[in-house]
Design a protein that fits this description.
The protein has 18 helices and 10 strands. It has about 450 residues and is of the alpha/beta class. It has 2 domains: about 180 residues, no CATH class; about 220 residues, P-loop containing nucleotide triphosphate hydrolases (Rossmann fold). Strands 6-7-8-4-9-10 form a 6-stranded mixed beta sheet, with helices on both faces. Strands 1-5-2-3 form a 4-stranded mixed beta sheet. β7, α14 and β8 form a beta-alpha-beta unit.
């Protein structure tokens, strides 16, 4: 699935604004930086094929149910990585009679460098031995196909005679250290990095499976379909584990959902939740929902936190137009997409916003293999869209008048006709303040000074 930086920012995947943690920080319980990098890569490069998504899910379940613990410590892994990436000159790939004198010269003349190499060799050998023991216990032949191929490849590489000698335990003098350094950083460096990659993958798989118990997430079900389908029960935003849960359903027949409701009622949070759920699902991860079945999309496109750009000479309205064009270009190719827009065209006057929004929504709705959710305050737009094919209406209501702080946050069918703006102003005491404006003359006013003369 293609997902751009704009959408990642809109959904607050890595940064929720003002330096606060994003969704990634909430779900990431990996033990190592390598595992964290793998999990991040999955979110930045989601899958689009149902089979590939199922394979990643099965790998998580398989490795968790195998009950084989994670095979390395963060310290060994970091030490091995630092050693592999160091700028110390690598030994030549071929052995010569000069290796012995070079090893002794290195140990005597460059003690600090030799110590760094020796420590790196020791950490790498320890990592390889731990991986070898892990592979002996995991039962690679029974693993899901894609994960099985990774396990068998690493096991075969670790089984080579040269690698087994290099990773064997025991004290090592200068010559042995020099020989192992050649193997780890020259002749078998690709195999060593494969073990590092496997460590990151295993770490990410275990952390992903733990999301279910730790956060209450569930594994979704990807389905193959010529159209688009998203059917979810009990969605909630990862930032709000105690939030009111809602359902979501988009299909070939009802592919456009038009949301109305006042500010703070839950429209934007709902949009973000649907986007986050689909992204996690296509990354092969559990999702914040009781149940989800979906057709994977090729593109996830959002227009939620659109901003102007003074450096590019881009006004707010023009930035909205550009984002709409991005979605239109994708849909014009016939690609399957989920498109989420919040307050479309609020950067222009109401009349332009109504006409432009109606045109865009009706145009997008012609894509029968995609899904769309639009949120808007413009209830007048609902009347203009009445009867549009594939479109239904949903609403979020304001809080009851007797408890203005308690929003229901529940999605219902239909169009909201509630006005909450004046009620919110009254709650904050704005009308009273407005009534007091002009009653007190400014200090030093001439009229006041004249009245004070005897």
């Amino acid at each position: 699935m293609n997902i751009d930086r704009h959408t990642l920012r809109d959904l607050e995947i890595f940064d929720s604004g003002s330096g606060r943690s994003g969704v990634f920080q909430v779900i990431d319980s990996t033990r190592t930086t390598v595992g964290s990098s793998v999990l991040k890569y999955w979110l930045e490069h989601p899958l689009s094929e149902p089979h590939a998504i199922m394979q990643r899910q099965e790998a998580q379940t398989y490795i968790a149910h195998s009950r084989v613990p994670f095979f390395t410590t963060p310290r060994d892994l970091l030490s091995a990585l630092a050693y592999l990436d160091s700028n110390i000159q690598r030994p030549a790939a071929s052995r010569t009679w000069r290796d012995g004198p070079r090893a002794i010269w290195l140990a005597v003349r460059y003690r600090t460098v030799y110590r760094e190499i020796k420590n790196g060799v020791s950490a790498t050998a320890s990592l390889l031995r731990q991986a070898d023991g892990f592979l002996a216990r995991i039962g690679a032949e029974e693993a899901p196909a894609t994960f099985r191929s990774d396990l068998l490849e690493v096991r075969e590489q670790l089984g080579e005679a040269e690698m087994r000698r290099a990773m064997s335990p025991g004290a090592a003098g200068p010559f042995t250290t020099y020989r192992r350094d050649r193997i780890f950083r020259s002749t078998r460096v690709a195999a060593v990095r494969r073990v590092v990659d496997l460590a990151g993958q295993v770490d990410a798989l275990l952390a992903a499976h733990e999301m279910s118990a730790r956060l209450g997430f569930q594994y979704p079900k990807p389905v193959s379909d010529s159209g688009f389908r998203l059917r979810a029960q009990g969605l909630f935003h990862p930032f709000l584990p105690d939030a009111v849960r809602n359902d979501a359903e988009l299909s070939h027949c009802d592919r456009v959902l038009f949301l109305t409701g006042p500010n703070m009622a839950g429209k934007t949070t709902y949009l973000k939740t649907v986007g986050i759920v689909l992204l996690l699902a296509q990354a092969g991860l559990p999702v914040p929902a009781r149940r989800l079945s979906f057709t994977p999309v090729d593109f996830l496109i959002t227009g939620i936190r659109t901003e102007d750009n003074l450096r590019r000479g881009l006004s707010y309205f023009m930035a909205e137009v550009v984002r709409v064009r991005v979605a239109a270009e994708v849909l014009a190719t016939g690609a399957r997409a989920l498109v989420l827009f919040d307050e479309i065209f609020k950067g222009t006057n109401v009349r332009d916003a109504l006409e432009a929004s109606e045109s865009v929504i009706r145009g997008f709705a012609k894509s029968q293999c995609s899904g769309f959710i639009f949120a808007s305050h413009l209830t007048e737009l609902a009347a203009a869209l009445e009867g549009a094919p594939g479109l239904r209406f949903g609403r979020f209501e304001p809080p009851p008048s007797d408890d203005p702080r308690r929003f229901p946050y529940e999605l219902a069918e239909g169009v909201s006709d509630q006005r909450f703006g004046l009620q919110l102003l009254e709650r904050e005491g704005v009308p009273d303040l407005l009534g007091r404006i002009g009653r007190i003359p400014p200090e030093g006013d001439g009229a006041t000074e004249q009245q004070e003369e005897p």
